[in-house]
Amino acid sequence: MTQEDSDDLPGQCDPEMMADMAHIPGRAAQLALRDKAYEILEIFKTRSGRPGTRLSNAWLGEHDWRVQLLQHWDIRHGGPEMFVPLVAALQRGGITHLCGTYVDAEGITDPTAVWRIPLEAGLISSFFGAHRYGFHILLPEDRSFAIHAMEDVCAAFAGPEAFLREALLPEFQGEGALADLKDAMDEEYGEAAFASVLAHYGPFLLEDSEDGG
Q1: C-alpha span between 187 and 199 (Å, rounded)
Q2: Could you tell me the sign of the dihedral formed by the alpha carbons of 4, 123, 169, 176, in that order?
Q3: Between β-strands 66-71 and 154-159, what pairing exists: parallel, antiparallel or unpaired?
């Protein structure tokens, strides 16, 4: 096996929680997928002053995506039940697996492993539990949607509006879920932290559905 074919990229995660998942086979394939992930992201300066990643407004606009912001705590501790609708929506779309990787800041941190995550709610939950800190992303290879998590602060579920309506439980859609995030961020980090997130994602936020969801 050559260096290019090996799977020896670091994982930047809790290895015990990732024990039931494997890397995408081959270092070159992982690097290619990581580059594809970075194409939908942009680098910005975090509240601490260091670089981080967030979904690119250019990508969101060009693909007519909507965004639902949630507490990172919710996706880490919500359990598999939170991801059951997501799995069902992906299966209906013919997706067979997801790719997950650490995306701190392209060109600044060393490349990290890209994981192949089967469409099982428990394994998706484990991925977010294993990546508690830093910036990480979960997406299909066709990049038809994405979940991007910012450190231990919040997570952006992004994709076509109809897909998000299917993939998220009703309690995690619209202004109610956003209000919970605002309260948590204001308490933990101050109002400026939430305001900066809202300033970036505001034009693309998922609105309440007509039935109140």
Answers
A1: 18
A2: negative
A3: antiparallel
Alpha-helical runs (H) found in the chain: 27-38, 57-62, 72-77, 84-92, 121-130, 161-167, 175-189, 191-201
Query: Whole-angstrom Cα distance, residue 172 to residue 153?
Result: 16
pTM strictly above 0.85: yes
Question: Would you list the DSSP string of 112-131?
Answer: --EEEEES-HHHHHHHHHH-
Closest to 128 measured CA to CA, from 8, 14, 9: 14
Phi, psi of 36 (to 5 degrees): -65, -35
A 10 A CB-CB count for 188 gives 13
Specify the residue for token string 């394939």.
29
Inter-residue contact 98 to 128 (CB < 8 Å) = no
Furthest CA-CA distance within the chain: 56
Q: What is the DSSP letter of 10?
A: -
Instruction: For 122-180, write each residue's pLDDT tens digit.
Output: 999 999 999 988 899 999 999 999 999 998 889 999 999 999 999 999 999 999 889 88
Locate 47 and state its tokens: 């509240």
